[in-house]
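Model: Ready when you are.
Researcher: Fold this.
Model:
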Amino acid sequence: MTETITEDILIDKFSNSQGFIIERQQSNSTRVRNALRQASKRKTGKAGCPDFIIRKDSSSFLIVVECKPDTVFHASDSLQNTEAYAVDGALHYASYLSKSFDVLALGVSGSDRTNLNVSGYLCLKQTHEKPILLTESLLTPAEYADLVFKSEHKLRQDFHNLVSYTQTLNERLQELKIMESKRGLLISAVLIALENRVFIKSYHEHTNSTQLAIALVQAVVDKLQSARLSKEKLEDFKTSLQFIQRYQVLLRTNNLLDLISDVEENVKGFVESHEFIDILSQMYVEFIRYANNDKGLGIVLTPRHVAEFFAECAGANRHSVVYDNCVGTGGFLIAAMRKMVIDADGDKHIISRIKREQLFGCEIQEDILALAISNMFLHQDGKTNVIGGDCFEPEVVERVRNKKPSIGLLNPPYRANKKKDTNELLFVLNNLNCLVDGGTCIALVPMSSVLAKSGESFELKKKLLRKHTLQAVFSMPNELFFDSNTGVVTCAMVITAHRQHDHDRKVFFGYFKDDGFVKRKVGGRIDENGTWSKIKSLWLNLYANRIDKAGLSVNVCVDANAEWCAEAYMKTARQSLKKKDFEDTLRRYFTYLIANRVDEKWIAPTDNTMLEFSNASLINERVELAEREWKEFGLTVLFHVTGSKTTPPRVVETMSEGLYPYVTTKSENNGVEGFYQTHTEGGGVLTVDSAVVGFCSYQKFPFLASDHVEKLIPKFEMNDFNALFLTTVINAEQYRYNYGRKCSQSRMKVPRFSYLFWKAEM
C-alpha cells in the first residue's frame, strides 16, 4: 500500500470544492509559507510539507491534511510521533499554522474509501487550548468550514475577540463625544448600511463626511423600506438617526469613514459567520457600562446564555409564538428565534413564517426601540412586530392577544425608586395576560419580588396564584449582571398562564447559582472553560424531571406567604462538607487567638486550651465526615436564637482598649474589630451576621456587638471543639443568604429549616 491511494481518495472527495484552493505540500500563500518555514516533521529546521493545505484567499481559516495508507498508523497514543502517524503529523503542522490561522488538523488513514479512519482536530488561532476533536467524518472543505464556524469553541473565540474590539471601539466613540445611549444605534446603523450593496461598494469614494453621513442614513432607510417596515416606523427610525448628520466631531476629517471601515472589518464578519448571536446587546452593555448606570439609561440586559436557557426551558419550537413585553434590544426574541429555526429543520417556508409572524415585542423607550428594530433586522426579520409603546395600554394588550402568543419571556425594568417605579411583578402579570391558556411565561426578576410577605409585591404574589400556576423558581447567579455594572440578585419564575395555582402541587426550586462563567477584565463574565453546555443540560434535566438534588434543587408546596426560592427549602449536600473544612475553621480560630494575643489577655499559664489547639488532636484523627451518620436538627433544637445589644461604632470609638472583643458583621478575624474595656454579652456562644451572608463565629469570651449580630446560645454543654465544629456546619449554609435574603432571626427560627449535624459529635 502507498500513501498515494489515500491521497487520491481525498482528491476525489475534494474535487468540487468551489471557492477553496487545494495545494499539495507547498502553498502559494506567503502567510502559509512563512508559518511552515521551520515546520519539518524531522525537526531539521527546514520547511514543512503537509500532504494537503486547503484554504480560501484572504481567509483566516485553513485545513491541513496528513495521510497514511494503513489505519494502524492513524494516531499514536501520545500524538507526538509526527513522522509515523497521520493525526500526529497534521497536529504538528497545525501547531505552526495556528499562530496565524484557525486550523482544522485532519488525519486520514486507510486505502479503502469505505473504511477510512478520519480525525479532525480544531486548533484555534493564538490560543493555549488543547486541540479539540471536532469530527471523525470525511467531509468536503465547505462542510468542514461550516462545522468549525458553527462550533461553540470557535464562537467563544470570536465572541471574546468581538468583546475586546467593542472595548476599543467604545474608547474611540468616547473620543468622538458620541453619547453612550447613541452608540449602539450608530453601530447598528452602520451594520444595516453595510447590508446595502450599493453603499458597501461606494462608501469609500465619499470625500465629504457630511455627504457620507447622508448616504449612510439613506442606505439604512432603503434597507428597512425594502424589508417592509411600516411607513410610520420608518419615519421614526429615520428621525432617530439624524444625530449622525449633526455630530461635528464625527464628521471631521475621515472619522466617519474610518469608523465604517473599522466596523466592516471587525464586526460584519462575525454577524455573517454566527447566526442568531445578539451582538448589539453585547455592544450596548459595553457602551453604557461606564455611564451613570444601565438603569439610568433604561435597561439591564439579559446575558445571551441565560436568554437561550429560558427559551429552552419554555420549549420554544417551530409552532411557538413568543412575546416579550419589555423587549429592550431584542435578546429574548433572538434566543427564541434560534431555537425555533433549529426546530424548523431547514424548511424555508416555516423559517420565513417564524420570523414574520411568530415573534413579538413591545418597547416604550424610543432609542431602545430603534435598537430592537435594528437587531431584529440584522437577524433577518421580525422587526415589523416590535411595537413602540406602553405594554400596559389596552390597545397594545389586545393587539398582542390577537396573535395568540404561547411563550412569554421578559426581564422587566428593575425599580430604582420603590415608591414611583412600576413593580416588576406587574410586568409579569401583563405578559401572562397576553398569553394563551396554558402558555408559559419565564421572567427574570429581583429576588425581593418572590420573598415578599407584605406590601405591594406580596399582594401581587397572591394575585398571580389566583390566576396562574407557579411551576418553578430558579435562583440565578449573584453576579449575573456583572457586565451591566448592576448588582441585583435575581431569580427566574416559570409560570403557566390562566390556570389557578393548586397549593397541593409541588413547585420546583432550583439553586442555579453556578453557571461556570468567570469574570475577566477583558470580556466580562465569560464561559472561559467551556463548562456552560454541561451545566445547562444538568439544570434542564433537573427541571424537566422535577428532581430533588441536595445542593441544587427541591420540590415543595408553597403559597403566597412562603418564600419562593430554593435557599429556603433545599437540603445541603452533606458530601460537600469535608474534614478540611473543619480543619480550616480550627486554623482560622487559632490564627485569630495568636494574631490578637488573646492567649496573653485571657488564658492563664495553667490553662491547657492553647495546648489542645496546638496539638490539634482532632485534626490528626481520621475524620471522614461524609461516611458518618448524620441527623437533621433545627437550630432552635440546639440553640436559643436571639439578638445582641448593639454598641454603635461611634460609641466604641470613645472607649479605651481592653480585653473584650468587638464583634461585627465582617467575616475576617473571627468577626472581631478591636478589643475594648467593657462588654455587653456573655461568652460561650456562637454569633451570626444577619446583614450579609450569615457568617458564624465562636465567641468564647464576653464581648461587645455591632448592629446585625445575632446570638446562638447553646442548650447543651458546648466546648471549644464542638463549638468550632458547629461553626463549620453553620457556615456551610451561607449559600442560603444574599443581599436579597438576609440571615435574620426569623429565618433561623423556621422549624422546617434544618442544618445537618454529625450525630456522633452530638
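Researcher: Now this one.
Model:
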Amino acid sequence: MVEIIVAKHAGFCFGVKNAVRLALDHAENGACYMIGDLIHNRQVVDELGSRGLKTVDDADGLPEATPGDKPKAIIRSHGAPRSLYRRLAEKGYDAVDATCPFVMKIHDIVEKHYNDGYHIVIVGSAEHPEVKATNGWCDDSATVIDENSDLEPLKKYEKLCVVCQTTFDGEKFEKLSKKIHKIGSKTVEIFDTICYTTYERQREAVKLAAECDCILVVGDRSSSNTNKLYDLCRAKNDRTYFVNSLGELDKINFPRSGKIGIVAGASTPTESIMEVKTYMGQEFGEASNEEFINAINNETPTGYREGKSVKCTVLSANEDGIHVNLGGKNDGFIDKAEACEDGEYKPEDFPVGSVIEAIITKKRDESSGCVLLSKRRADLMKKTDEAVNQIRNNEIFEMVVKKDTKGGLIGSLGTYRVFVPASQVRLKFVPDLKKFVGKTLRLRALDINDIEHKIVASQRVILQEEKDEKDQKAEIFWDNVKPDVVVAGEVKRISPYGAFVSVDGIDCLAHIDHLSYSHIESPSEVLEVGKTYDFLVLKTDREKQRVSLGYRELQPHPFDKCMEKHPVGSVVKGKVISVLPYGAFVEIEPGVEGLVHVSEAAAAYVKDINEVLHAGDEVDVKVMAYDDQHRKTTLSIRACLDEAKPVSARAEKAAKKAEESDVYSEKSDNNVFANLLKDVGDKQEEKAEKPAKKATKAKKTEDAEKVETDKE
C-alpha cells in the first residue's frame, strides 16, 4: 500500500491568491490588460486569457485609451518599477495593483533608504521580475547578488541597505548576510524580506523529502520558488521528480509501497495538485480514501442503504409502476408516483432492458418483498449534482451533517456522499463529533470520486487559510501602521468615549477628544457607523494590540478658517464663554475663542469685569491680533465703542460710579500710590509747621513779657 502525503503549504500563497482574485474580478468588468504574466504558471495565465484578459509586455504595448474611458492595467504579483505607474497614468490607464504585500514592503524599504543615501543591494536572481521591479524603486542603481557573487565591489559604499527576493533560499541568504557584515562598510542594514510562507514551504519540503520514498514537485518550470523546492528536495532525495502535467507521471517508476510526498510552489493552482493526488490515489490507493470507504461501508450491514443511488434494469412497466432488477437477489419497485419528476408517468417510456437510476427509499417492502425506489428523487438529485461541478475548482460549499461515524462526519451533496474526517473538522482535535450532527459545515473538497459518488472534504483547510490570512494581514498591519500614517477605517461601533474603527480587520479606537476641534457630546455627531473615513495614527502598542486614531487631526483647524474669515481689524459678533478676573473669553467661531482683557472690556475703566460682562452675553468685538503659533486671538470690546456711548447700561452705570468714586483720588484708601503721596505730604507739612509754631510761640512769649513790663 502506498501512502500519499500532500504538504500543508502547497499551492497558491496569499499574494498569488489575491492577484488571481483581482484579475478574475476585473475580467468580468470590461477591458483590462495584464502587464506581463500575472504569476509564473502558464495554466493560470491561459485561463485568465480565456476570460478576456490580454497580456502585454509593458505599458508601451497597451493601446491608446479612448477619451472618456478609463481602461485598467493589472500590475503583476511580482510588482513593478515606479516608472510603470507613471507610464500607465500618462497613457490614461487605471493601475490595478496585484503586487504581493510582502513585495510592496520591500519597495518601501528600498525607496526610503535610497532617498537617505544608501546603496541598495538585492539578494536574488537578476532576471527575476520581482528583482527587476524592486530595482526600479532606486532608479535601477542596485547591485544584485546571489550566493556566487563577488562582494568586493560593495566595499566602496559607506552605507548599504540589503533586501532579499521573497522566494530566495533562506539558508543561502543567512550565509550571504554574514559575509556582507564583514566587508567593512560603515553602515549596513540587512532586511530579511523572504516571505515567511516560503520558509514554511521550504522547511516542510525538506522534511518530506527526508521521510518519503519519492517526492513529486508540482508546478510550472518557470516558477522560481517551485524550482527552489525541487533543488531542496533533490538534495535530500534522489527520487525527486518535477511534475508539470499528468502526462509526466506515466514516465515515473513509482515504488509499490511506502510513502510518496507531494509538494507544490506558491504559483501552483490547487486543481493541479488535486489532479496529481487523484491520479496517485486511483493508481495506488491512499489512506484517506480507505478511511472514507470504510466509514461508508460500516454504516449499514447491507448493500441496500436507504438514500443510496443505484442503477437498475427495467423488468416490466405497467399502470402501477416499474419493476426493476438491482443486480442482486432482490428486485425493486418504483411506484408510478415516484417515476417522473413532472408526474406524467407513461409505462411505454420505460421499455424492458433499459437502465435507469433511482434512490432507495425502503430496503424491503413487507407486502411485496421488493426494495422500494424513487426515480423522481434521483432526477432531482441529478440537478443538485451541478453543485459538485462547482466545487471542483476548490470552491467552498456547505453541508448539513446527517450523522457521525467512527472517524468523521457524514453528509451529502446531491447524489454524492460526503465524508469529513475527524481531523478535518476543526483546527484542533475534536473529541466529541456528535455535537456537529445537524450543524452546517463550510467545506472544501479534498478528493472527489465520480465513480462511487463520494467526496472527502475538509473544513480545517478553510479555517487554516482564514487564520493564515488573518495572521498575514495582522503582520502587514503592524509592520506598516505607524504613528503619523493615514489609514482608512470603517466605523464599527460608537461608545460614549469614542468610536471603534476597523482598519484591515484590526480594531482601533478613535477617542472622542480626537474627533472634533469643538466640544461634542457623542462621536455620532461626527462619525456614522458603517461608513469609512480617513484617520491619522496617533499611537500604537503592538504588544497590547492597541492603536489610537485621530480624525480631527486630518480636518482643517477652525483657527485657520477664522483667520481667513476675520482678518485683524474685523468686527465680529461673539458669545461670552467664561469670565475670569483678568478678562473674558469670547467665542467668535465654533471652536475658536479669543481673550478680551479687562482693560478692553468697556469704554471706561471698570474695577470688576463681572459688572459689564457675563457668560452667555453676545457682544461685538474687534480682532486685534492673532498668534498663529500658539493659536491665540486677542479681542477688544472697547475698540468697537464710541467713547461717548458706553457699551451698555450696565457699563454706563459702572463708568458713572467710577467717576463719582475716589478711585483716582490721592485720598482714596484703595489707591496705594495716593496714600504714599499723602504720607509724604503730611510729613512735609509737619516739618513746615514746626518752625512756624516755634516763631508764633516765641512771639507770644515776647508779647506777654512786654505786657508785663508795661504793667509794672
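Researcher: Key takeaway?
Model: The CA atoms of residues 180 and 491 lie 47 Å apart.
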